[in-house]
Design a protein that fits this description.
Structural class: mainly beta
Shape: elongated
Helix content: 10-25%
Distance between the termini: 128 Å
Order of helices and strands: HEEEEEEEEEEEEEEEEEHEE
Radius of gyration: 29 Å
Number of strands: 19
Strand content: 35-45%
Largest sheet: 7 strands, mixed
Length: 305
């Protein structure tokens, strides 16, 4: 008799488990999860060639919900819950650019700290302009294509659904050319740095963000008397109008500050700024790399008599 009751109890328990499992399977059959196509239209940046594209979904309240990364600049299909979303998107797989923030209005692209003389492989301190000596030092970003899209609705139990996004270039291009450089020899390494640049870029706001930073730069030598650099940035003067200095540093501890404020602020195209500087007279005797103190290059007065 006891065995019959035990067997009956066991069978009842098994039935309950089976019913429970069946109910759970039905819960996972989410009709409100649908296939959603992300398409990128590159008409605003026809020459763009990103490695990957990143799309962030945010709730209407601005909370981060999901991140997708596509291996094609054309986009792809994702599975998303029905609802209304705000989207931020940008290219991915960049060496110097990272993501920061978990709310729509806080999300930004930024770069990592770097040593001031890293372009010439030096770790020692170097003289900095007085008005920017405390600025954080950051890497220059790669080219960024990005954008935002609000009120994207994904409907449940619907057919083909998609959204077309339109990335545009949000970084600016800067070139600095220094002509008439004297005594530039192959045994001296030379780098540059520019002050007053934007630390981050807010895609949601569509503008530079964060504090002012200094960007170290590698300088090219097109010929024996010219230094040149072309780089991208999130912009300059992120908070207020200020001065900008371009500094040349050498491996034998010689430096020169150039005030480039007017050229930065009065550029004809604020997204494509060209800085032209004349004259850099490096010491002819070539200071030894073992020298302990830095020496500033002083402009020489020309005797017109």
């Amino acid at each position: 008799m006891k065995k019959r009751f035990a067997i009956a109890g066991l069978l009842a328990a098994i039935v309950c488990v089976i019913q429970s499992c069946s109910h759970k399977d039905l819960c996972y059959d989410h009709d409100h999860v649908v296939d959603f196509e992300i398409k990128f239209d590159w008409s605003k940046a026809p020459d763009a060639a990103p490695n990957t594209m990143v799309v962030h979904f945010f709730t209407p309240e601005g909370h981060h919900y999901r991140r997708y990364e596509f291996s094609s600049q054309e986009g792809g299909s994702v599975k998303m819950e029905a609802g209304t979303y705000k989207l931020l998107f940008h290219n991915g797989e960049m060496e110097n650019v990272g993501e920061s923030g978990y709310r729509y209005d806080e999300y930004a692209l930024t770069t990592s700290p770097i040593l001031l003389l890293s372009p010439i492989g030096r770790a020692f301190d170097a003289p900095r302009p007085e008005d920017s000596k405390d600025e954080p030092v950051r890497s220059a970003p790669e080219t960024v294509w990005a954008g935002a899209s609000d009120d994207i609705e994904i409907k449940p139990l619907s057919g083909d659904q998609s959204v077309t996004l339109y990335p545009s270039m949000v970084t600016s291009v800067y070139t600095v050319e220094i002509r008439d450089v004297k005594n530039m020899t192959n045994d001296i390494d030379i780098s540059g740095a520019i002050t007053g640049m934007a630390e981050c870029y807010s895609i949601g706001a569509g503008e530079p963000f964060g504090q002012a930073v200094t960007l170290p730069l590698s300088l090219e030598r097109p010929d024996a008397s010219t230094l040149f650099v072309r780089f991208t940035s999130f912009g300059h003067c992120p908070k207020e109008v200020k001065r900008h200095t371009f500094t040349v540093y050498t491996s034998n501890k010689v430096y020169k500050h150039f005030d480039i404020t007017d050229q930065m602020h009065e550029a004809a195209d604020p997204n494509n700024i060209k800085i032209l500087l004349e004259g850099l007279d490096l010491p002819a005797d070539g200071l030894k790399p073992s020298v302990e103190e830095w020496g500033e290059v002083i402009d020489k007065e020309i005797d017109m008599n």
